[in-house]
Amino acid sequence: MIIAGNWKMNTLPNEAEELVRNILQGLQDKKFDSEIVVCPPFTNLHTVSALITGSKIKLGAQNCYYEPKGAFTGEISIPMLKYFDVEYIIIGHSERRTYFGETDEIINRKARAILEKNLKPIICIGETLSERQQGKTFEILFNQLEKCLCDLKVDDSKNLVIAYEPVWAIGTGVSATKEQIEEAHNKIKNHIQSMFGIAHDDIVLQYGGSVTSDNSEEILSIESVNGALIGGASLKSDVFLKIIEIAEKTIKN
Ligand code: PEP
C-alpha cells in the first residue's frame, strides 16, 4: 500500500516544515506497513528531506526532466532530485498534461530515465469526463498505458507505480465510485499483465481523485487498489494521518 501526498504548488518552506513535522509527530511510535510518500514542490525538497531523514517517510517529486543536465532552462533533472534522496517522481499528472502540454511520449521518456536511475515513477493515467461520457474510457487508458510504458522491460515493472486518476475526479470533491474504480483497476491490471506478462499482485496501482478521510476506507478496501495519490487532503496533516491509519486497516495480504 503506497499512500502518497501530492502537495502540488502549495507550501512555503515554513508551511512545509510545519506540515511534515505534524505528520512525523502523528506517526511517532506507530508501527505502519504502508509506504508513506510526501511530494512537496521542488523549492521545499531540501527542507523536507532534512526533516524526514531517519524516518520511514519517503520523499517524492512532482515532475522532472529526462535529460541529466544541460541547457534546459527551468527544468530539474533526476540526479538533482536524487541528491535530496527523492525516491518517487510523479509524471503525467493530468494538470501537467493539460496546462503544460506533457504528452505520453514525454512521459515515456521521463519514465525510462527515472527507472534507469533506480528511482520509481508514479505514472498518472486517466480519462476526462467527456471521454467517459462518450464510452472511450478504456480506449484512452489502454492507449496511455501503451505509450507511457513503451519499451520498458519486465524488470522495470517492480519499480513502477501507476496511478489511475480520472481527470473529472481530481480536485472536484467527486471521487469515482467503488464500481468505477474496481472496473478500471481490473482492466488496467489486465492490460499491464498482457503487456509484461506479470501477475496482478505484482502491479502497484494507486487510485487518485478526491480521496479524503471519509471515502478512503471504501476505496482502499478494494482488492485491486494498492494505495492512493492524494492532493488536497494531503495538505492537512490530521486528514493525511487519518488516511494512513485507514490504509493500515485495509492492507491486503
Ligand atoms: C492529485 O493531485 O493527484 C489528486 C488526486 O488531487 P485531489 O486528491 O485533490 O483530487
Protein topology:
Elements: E1 2-6, H1 13-27, E2 35-39, H2 45-52, E3 57-61, H3 78-83, E4 86-91, H4 94-100, H5 104-116, E5 120-125, H6 129-133, H7 137-148, E6 161-164, H8 178-196, E7 204-208, H9 216-220, E8 227-230, H10 237-250
Helix pairs in contact: 1-2, 1-10, 7-8
The structure holds phosphoenolpyruvate (PEP).
Phosphoenolpyruvate (PEP) binds at residues 6, 8, 93, 165, 170-171, 208-211, 229-233.
Characterize the biggest β-sheet: 8 strands, parallel, barrel
Strand order, sheet with most strands: 1-2-3-4-5-6-7-8
Named CATH topology: TIM Barrel
Helix content: 40-55%
Overall pLDDT score? 97
Number of helices: 10
Strand percent estimate: 15-25%
Shape from CA axes? Answer: globular
Number of structural domains: 1
Stretches where pLDDT is under 50 for at least 5 consecutive residues are: none
The CATH C-level name is Alpha Beta
Sketch the topology as an H/E string, one letter per element: EHEHEHEHHEHHEHEHEH
Bound molecules: phosphoenolpyruvate
The structural class is alpha/beta
Radius of gyration: 17 Å
Termini Cα gap:
10 Å
What is the name of the CATH architecture? Alpha-Beta Barrel
Q: What's the CATH superfamily, by name? A: Aldolase class I
Q: How many extended strands? A: 8
3D architecture notes:
There is one protein chain. By secondary structure, this protein is an alpha/beta fold. The chain is built from 10 helices and 8 strands. α7 (137-148) packs parallel to α8 (178-196). It is 41% helix and 16% strand. It is globular. The N and C termini lie close together (10 Å). The protein has a single domain (2-252), classed as TIM Barrel (Alpha-Beta Barrel). The mean pLDDT is 97. Residues 6, 8, 93, 165, 170-171, 208-211, 229-233 line the site of phosphoenolpyruvate (PEP).
